Amino acid sequence: MAQILLRRLIQSALILLGVAAITFLLLYALPADPARMIAGRSATAQTVANIRHELGLDQPLVLQFLYYLGGLLQGDLGRSYAQKTEVWTLIAARLPATLTLMAAGILVEVLLGMTLGTIAALNRGRAVDRLVMMSAFVGVSAPQFVVALLLLYVFAATLGWFPMSGYGTLSHVVLPALTLGLLGAGWYARMVRSSMIDVLNQDYVRTARAKGLSGARIVFRHALPNAVLPVIAMIGIDIGQFMGGVVVVEAVYGWPGIGQLAWQAIQQVDVPIIMGVTLTSALAIILGNLIADLVAPIVDPRIRSH
Amino acid sequence: MRVMREILRQPAALFGLLIVLVVVTMAIAAPLLAPFDPDNQMFDGLTLEGAPIAPGGPFLLGTDTLGRDLYSRLLFGARNSLIIGLVANGIAVSIGLLIGITAGYARGWISTILMRFTDLMMAFPALLLAIVLAALLKPSLWIVAMVIALVNWVQVARIVYTETRGLVERDFILAERALGAGHGRILFLHVLPHLVPTAIVWGTLGIATTVLLEATLSFLGIGVQPPDPSWGNIIFESQSYFQAAPWLVFFPGAVILLTALAFNLVGDALRDILDPTQRGRG
To answer: Is there a domain that residue B54 lies in?
Structure first.
């Protein structure tokens, strides 16, 4: 077990290194010039050159990357070009907001998805089933920003139940979390439904039924725990998806998370922040998958023996 | 033919297919169907106070903040969204096929390098990468398509890789090899045909993803650039106005949703029909 974990950790570190290298190369190769961006439109060539020198951008690419890696190994993500602050400080300040949003979104998604998926599986082939599956399809096909704007229009602008934007209280979280959760719930509903159907056809469920157990007991005690495994794997993947996807939701709701930070940095060609956020997101994706793999054997003893 | 028959038998898939046909017709026949020039900022396209006109009347779906006919813009927007959808997804599926087949067939270090690279791309936050690329490159139709292709091939590559690995172990391929067939013959005559269903399924499902991604990039202002209409940038241009003129968000949003839904429904049905292992499930 420890050996497997060690191997996974080394693999993860290598992947992270690869992500850093590719992002670095891409940002270097793109036509946007951070020095010119900082200097402003009317700056002379000399000023731009000075800034470039100051930031170390006149060094060869390999050297620049090695410097960056050196810092990274010490947990230093560098300094923002535009804000002159440590990138890690900026990210750390924004991370709680994004994690709150993510947790709330995943909660909505899992609860809604599992409920709907179970209902559909128990009513397989009936109208309820078809309705749930159709809504699941609509959910996974809906553009996030449109749902965000519509929720704002109905529940904030028209009904006034929730604030238009901002951060801080529970009522601020509701609409952004619903936006993230409603769309993702479709995937969960589909998955839970199909694994529930598999489980319900197993012998032990038939045995339970033959023993005369109540329907509720069969579902909650025997079927659902066995259908939950793919959900855990899915949550792991979702954590990564969310980290990439928050840019849009945070932009619409004015949510002060790392998505907003990234969006601002992209417009200012603030390379260190873009690098930092990309690496943080990649780390989240890797950790998400890792945690899912580690939790799976705890939930399902059958995996433990492998 | 069998595929067509089975699609016609499933109401959901049929519904999807109909919408796909409608959207494609909209895109192709946009100049014939559009009542107005989509870029024309009409004098009578705004109220006396300078606000957009609500749906109904001469402007079927209303006008936008610059007095342009929304219905005409949606029709021409269908062109941009579909072109990007087809091109980007075509490239993505091609890259995915190429890398997946190569890695699955070659084995050894080539396979290892390619699949490790694919794993690496899986760890990339795709949307973030697309946003960074699209924002820092000068956005144009083709750049947007390339950016989307660049982040979307990964899944196809992994699936094709797994399938190819399974295929090359099968008896008929081993027999071919024993008979002295070259790599080219095996790949093109025996491996590739078996991957056609996968390519078709992902070619369809992928368009839904692509259309959504294009709309998202355009909504952020880094996709199709105004005045060229795209479903995403119509919303981008009018989002600050959406309380007063919700139709400017509602109609384009509905079109994006319906298009993505349609391709998802058709793709899902195709997967059930073309993949025999999925038959009888669900």
So the answer is: no
Beta carbons of B257 and A146 less than 8 Å apart:
yes
CB contact under 8 A, A141 and B212: yes
- The model's pTM is 0.86
- Kindly report, residue by residue over A58-116, the tens digit of the pLDDT: 777 888 888 888 888 887 877 787 777 888 888 888 888 888 888 899 999 999 999 99
3-class SS of residue B179: coil
Number of domains forming the structure of chain B: 1
Question: Residue A41 burial by CB count (10 A; 0-12/13-18/19+): exposed, middle or buried?
Answer: exposed
CA atoms of A61 and A54, how far apart (whole Å): 15
Q: Evaluate whether residue B58 is within a structural domain.
A: no
Strand partners, B56: B59
Partner residue facing A15 (CB), from B119, B136, B268 = B119
Task: Please give the residue of chain B at the shortest CA–CA distance from A135.
Answer: B261
Which has more confidence, A271 or B54?
A271
What is the domain extent for residue B169? 2-28+69-278
Whether B253 and A149 lie within 8 Å, measured CB to CB: yes
Q: What is the average pLDDT score of chain A? A: 82
Q: Which of A18, A152, A285 has its CB closest to that of B125? A: A285
Q: Rounded distance, CA A14 to CA B125, Å?
A: 16
Cβ contacts of B253 on chain A, cutoff 8 Å: 143, 146, 149-150
Please determine, for residue B281, whether its predicted confidence score (pLDDT) is greater than 50: no
**DSSP-assigned states of every residue in A72-100:** HHTT---B-TTT-SBHHHHHHHHHHHHHH
Is residue B144, in this structure, part of any structural domain at all? yes
Neighbouring CB atoms inside 10 A of B48's CB total 5
pLDDT digits (tens, 9 = 90+) for A23-35: 888 888 777 777 7
Cβ within 8 Å, pair A26-B122: no
Using CB atoms, pick whichever of B132, B219, B268 lies closest to residue A274: B132
Contact check, Cβ <8 Å, A30/B133? yes
Measured in degrees and rounded to the nearest 5, phi and psi for residue B125 equal -70, 100
Q: Which domains does chain A have, with CATH numbers?
A: 21-73 (no CATH), 95-305 (1.10.3720.10)
CB-closest option in A22, A141, A153 to B260:
A141
